[in-house]
Amino acid sequence: MTLPGVEATRARIVAGTTSAEANLRECLERIAALNPKLQAFHTVAAQSSLARATELDALLKSGAQPGALHGVPVALKSNLCASGHETNCGSRLLAGWQAPYTARAVERLLDAGAILVGMTHMDEFGFGSSGENSAYATARNPHDPERTAGGSSSGSAVAVASGMVPLALGSDTGGSVRQPAALCGIAGFKPSYGRIPRHGLVAFGSSLDCISPFARSVTDLECAMEVLSGHDALDATSIEEPPLLRIASEGALDGWRIGVPRECFDAGAGSGLDEGVRTALEAALRRFEQLGAQCVEVSLPHLRHAIATYYIIACAEASSNLARFDGVRYGVRHTAGSSLAAMMSATRERGFGAEVKRRVLLGTFVLSAGYHEAWYQRAQRVRARIAQDFEQAFEQCEVLVTPTTPSTAFRLGEKSSDPLAMYLSDVLTVPASLAGIPALSIDCGRTQGLPVGMQILGPARADTRVLRAGRAFERKNA
Amino acid sequence: MSAAHDPALVSPRTGRRWLAVIGLETHVQLKTRTKLFCGCEYRFGAEPNTLTCALCTAQPGALPVLNCEALALAVRAGLALGADIAPLSKFDRKHYFYCDLPKGYQISQYDQPYCKGGGIALASGRFIRLERIHMEEDAGKAIHDRGASTLVDLNRAGVPLIEMVTQADIQTAAEAFEYLTLLKERLQYAGVSDCDMEKGSLRCDVNISVRPAGEGWRTKVEIKNLNSFRFIAAAIEHEAWRQIEAYESEDPAQYPVQETRLYDPERNQTRTMRGKESARDYRYCPDPDLPPVVLDASFLERERSNLSEPADSRRARYREQLGLSPADAAALTSERAASDYFEACLRSGIDARDASSWIRNELLGWVGEPELGLRDFAQLPISPRELSEVLELIRSGRIASNAGRKLLRARALAGPDGPGIAALVAQLGLEQVQDDAQLEEWCRAALIGKEKIIADYRSGKEAALNALLGPVMKQSGGRAAPEKVREILKRLLSG
To answer: How distant, in Å, are the alpha carbons of A61, A82, A198, A401, B308 from that of A209?
Structure first.
């Protein structure tokens, strides 16, 4: 990619090579040129972002200390609240809805000098792995517009991958940032659960949801993570310790052990691993060895239960979280007759798409009296086992490396009629979500012209370690 | 209640002995500054939807954060009721759809409440056991009687509540009444809640069934819409007899079914609200937004030490150590603020009997008087030090005890920022006149034209003096020191 990343953009503006405004105009031009085809943004805030850029330029001229993201244009997934912007969650039910407040993570970006350029398309409420479940438009993969960009943070991934913006936020509940990052050939980082406060992120699966950044390099992700991380008083599940550090290393990984979970390379992982993906990953492992690391085989015995466990827990929480969309206080209300129940039913019936209804029904079922123990509670126990598997694996290695997805970007429409096949493609990303551990997806090559994503996993809260491994790999690869 | 108390209800028709089996579920609002999971305050009667935020209105993306003050008060309630506080508890979501429930679920505690056990001993010695106490948030209010549409007020949404569930230990309406009275007193003394049913800060549902003496439990019925302790007792009485009559009809179609009934105080009867077939499945699940509540020993210790002495123990102490009558002890503890005031009086050196008589005969009676505008005793603007000043003025004879009463009322009327006692004494001219010359002048004036009385006195009728005292007091505006007036009159008459 020839366009400057996060660090370079800021550096050029601060050095006076360009201005925040001039840089933003280039971005806006690129969006104007590419968005009609790629469908990354549903709204572009040209005016307000230009006003903000002018303001930032004036600030810099006045001698103010520039923030860590001074002048950096960013895009937001449409499930993040930003006052004055449309947080429609890819749903008809929230068409035109603007949050009365701004998410803490977004506030942190803005405080650091970032410019909010617009809101991006997504699978409705985050339910999907292809972008096809958006009520508005399906984002297209810049490498082949006939193929999926992945999902559910589709638009944010496309905005970064196509060079419209250097940085975007998505949210990752079971892979919704890592998978589109992999399919679009960019970097996406799901931090440890709680590392970035969830305040202002429209909830899908609250115990899994992580606001997660996309960028075109690990270094850029680190820049963003420094700004985004840290406890917030408005999110009781957010964490502070240990702080995220950027360790200045020249890329060597001497003495590191790279764990290779055999289950992730087996064809039996639930969804067969594409040969091209396997080849790219094997090459990547060789590069880790060249960096001084040693590859060790490890096992995650409960991995085969991850998909079932994930879909039970995520759907249960989603059914609960989506209960508030009842037409009473906000959203598009549909009335039917005069009863409250009829209004709520009509609003949800007409406002929600098919996948949302499917998951709400599944979630409602697994929480129902009589089924609760067999499904939801059992899933919680398996979840604990999966987390334990990781803990044991990390006794033998510093990080784990797996493919991010079993295959490269599939054709749009290929899986949209088969929800189960779609769910199974999340097999490699959901385990880290269930365990709450940090997981990075970075580009590790091409097969048949399409990007292959590699996932690097670390123990809970070892975000710094994961990013460091990713950065070392990236430098070696560059 | 005496030991001879017989809880049985004897059917006048069949002579059968029936026993009621009663459990109470009581919600009280915790007296916190802010709501359970956000920083909004709550005031009863505020303009609708003015005490709300993104969380109260369930805006997408808003998250709950536990209010530590609410947790402390909840723990204090548990301690005041002798319950076991769980070192680890959690919050759950209780799902149902209604327009006053913004999130579509209520945050409550399901299978791991923060508190188990405890209870309240009745005067009879019977102990009403608590099964559990849990924390939860209140819902908003749906208003149906202002035009065609239902209006929703979310001010109350998120207000902290604790729910106390008894075992089915209560046997009679009188026991239910007594339990509630003691519960309210205990919670008020612990500073946990106002327990004001009129403002909805105490709400109670009844579970009741009846069984023939010696037989097992039968189907229970829940009664809601109970707005006072008196109605609760009446509803229990009525519902118990309704169930007895239903069973005695011998027609199984008439037998009580598991249902929720509403009490109608005007007709003194209960009627079906919803049957069992529409029983809700709340789909409880742990709330992933809230980490488990971990209470450590030092926190519990601190709360335990913050706990004030309960009313029953204070009453015993007043009787046994201070020698007050049971009626005085009861009156002084009728309100925590009055009892605290009494104790502060003791600390400022006022004699227990003096303090008790002034509080009971004067101050307590002032609460609710429109002129004084005191809603409760805690609002009384007279400090114990000021009361002590007034008592000292009376004791030293500088003011009459009647003037003391006037003075205190004036002080109460003046409000918290009003003038002090000394200033009021001067302002109102309440100080007794001790000046001999002035007193003699008033006395001489009083003697004019009272030859008959003077003669009576001189002939040995001492009581005739009282007839002269009156006019002197009247002329002095009540300020003449009565003992001195007597002396002067005696001197003048003997001269």
So the answer is: 40, 18, 8, 22, 44
- Give Cβ neighbours of residue A65 (< 8 Å, ≥ 6 apart): none
Q: Is the pLDDT of residue A271 over 80?
A: no
CATH class, A1-302+385-478 region: alpha beta
Count, residues in chain B: 495
A229 has catalytic annotation: no
* Torsion, CA A444, CA A447, CA A452, CA A454, rounded to 10: -50
Asked if B453 and B461 count as a contact pair (C-beta separation under 8 A), the reply is no
Query: In angstroms, rounded to a whole number, what is the distance separating the alpha carbons of residues B185 and B179?
Result: 10
- The per-type count for chain A, helices as H runs and strands as E runs, is 16, 13
Quick check: is A176 catalytic?
yes
Q: Do B291 and A324 touch (CB under 8 A)?
A: no
Confidence of residue A248 (pLDDT cuts 50, 70, 90): low
Of A176, A192, A425, A433, the catalytic one is A176
Whether pLDDT at A249 is above 90: no
The nearest CA of chain B is from the CA of A235 a distance in Å of 6
Q: Could you tell me which chain B residue has the CA closest to the CA of A330?
A: B59
> pLDDT tens, B262-287?
999 899 889 988 765 556 799 999 99
CA distance B128 to chain A (A): 31
Q: Do A340 and B288 touch (CB under 8 A)?
A: no
Report chain A residues whose CB lies below 8 A from the CB of B61: 79-81, 87, 99, 103, 198-203
Q: How many angstroms away from the CA of A133 is the closest CA of chain B?
A: 20
* Residue A337: predicted pLDDT: 84
- For chain B, the domains span 9-294, 308-428, 436-494
CATH topology assigned to domain B436-494:
Arc Repressor Mutant, subunit A (1.10.10)
What was the pLDDT predicted at B3? 44
| Spans of chain B below 50 pLDDT | 1-3
Q: For residue B64, which residues of chain A lie inside 8 Å, CB to CB?
A: 236
User: What is the torsional sign of CA B220, B221, B222, B223?
Assistant: negative
pLDDT digits (tens, 9 = 90+) for A219-243: 999 999 999 999 999 999 999 887 7
- Facing A364 at nearest CB: one of B64, B283, B289: B283
Amino acid at B480: A
Q: Is A152 a catalytic residue?
A: yes
**pLDDT band with cut points at 50, 70 and 90 for residue A1:** very low
The pLDDT value recorded for residue B492 is 85
Please state the domain extents for chain A: 1-302+385-478, 308-373
Within 8 A of A341 by CB-CB distance, chain B residues are 97
3-state secondary structure B193-210: CCCCHHHCCEEEEEEEEE
Residue A269 has pLDDT above 70, yes or no: no
Q: How many CB pairs under 8 A join A and B?
A: 104
User: Which of A94, A100, A376 comes nearest B285 by C-beta?
Assistant: A376
Higher pLDDT: B377 or A155? It is A155
Chain B residues closer than 8 Å to A81 by CB = 59-61
What pLDDT is stored for residue A230 in this prediction? 95
